[in-house]
Specification:
Elements: E1 2-7, H1 12-24, E2 31-36, H2 47-64, E3 70-73, H3 81-87, E4 92-94, H4 95-106, E5 110-114, H5 120-129, E6 136-141, H6 152-171, E7 175-178, H7 186-190, E8 198-200, H8 201-215, H9 238-245, H10 248-251
Parallel strand pairs: 1-2, 1-3, 3-4, 5-6, 5-7, 7-8
Helix pairs in contact: 2-9, 4-8
């Protein structure tokens, strides 16, 4: 089994954190291909940045998905997830959706521990789109500037643990989601200090991606995730034009 794991932001340090946790979550014989967005922002916390990250992820997936069995979107908020499911014929798993599903199998109500206040609106909208708003106890987030996104666990680890404890004590969380790729691995390292289970989105996504490959579900040929219709494209990278337009010869032919 071969999995393509995409970091849709430009931080190589974050990709290394993702890879470290991902390698703890794969079975013998599973191979990983790690990819970092070629353009975009250092970390995603707004709707606009999520749109950019989603496009970057689509470009990476178009260029790299061949010979892989599944794709993992390694950013909380799952930028580009639905779009990738629409154009790829293999399973695509997002950190957010994977963590939310897992949290609801562990407890009745979950809290999300996040890296910034600004990120909350986008996270709430993502959780709502996944259909889990009624199970959300709270989102608690850091309120300090992030000096170095790759060192947030070292720089803010104790504050993140304190936020998690408050989510349990004050908000009634049965399970915690330590959200965002920059926090990959933190749930594993602080689990013994928290009174309820703590989940890592990378871990959840890797386990679910492997399970979906094992299930062997066929790609849809009907419904909302069937292949998009063929149409001319302009200005897209060649690999993405092939997936979106379905016919590269037509996509580069002037219309009219």
């Amino acid at each position: 089994m071969k999995l393509l794991v995409i970091n849709p932001n430009i931080s190589g340090d974050v990709t290394r954190l993702i890879e470290s946790e991902a390698r703890r979550s794969i079975r013998p014989g599973t191979e990983l291909t790690m990819a970092t967005a070629p353009f975009g922002v250092a970390y995603i916390e707004t709707r606009a940045e999520a749109q950019i990250g989603g496009y970057a992820a689509m470009q990476v997936a178009a260029e790299c998905h061949a010979d892989h069995d599944a794709v993992v979107m390694a950013a909380f908020g799952d930028p580009g997830l639905s779009a990738l499911r629409e154009i790829l014929g293999i399973p695509v798993v997002g950190m957010t959706e994977a963590a939310l599903v897992s949290a609801c199998q562990v407890g009745s109500r979950f809290s999300v521990i996040a890296i910034s206040q600004r990120i909350q609106a986008w996270y709430r909208e993502t959780i709502s789109a996944c259909g889990f708003s009624s199970r959300l106890a709270s989102i608690r987030a850091l309120d300090e500037p992030l000096a170095h996104i790759g060192r947030i666990q070292e720089d803010q680890g104790e504050r993140l643990v304190a936020l998690a404890e408050r989510a349990v004590q004050d908000d009634g969380a049965d399970v915690l989601i330590l959200a965002g790729a920059p926090l990959a691995g933190l749930a594993r390292s602080v689990a013994g200090r928290l009174p309820v289970p703590a989940l890592d989105g990378v871990t959840c996504a890797l386990h679910q991606a492997q399970a979906l490959v094992d299930l062997g579900a066929a790609a849809p040929i009907a419904g909302s995730f069937a292949l998009p219709p063929e149409k001319p494209c302009k200005g897209l990278p060649e690999a993405l034009a092939r997936l979106v337009g379905r016919d590269l010869a037509r996509s580069v032919t002037p219309v009219g």
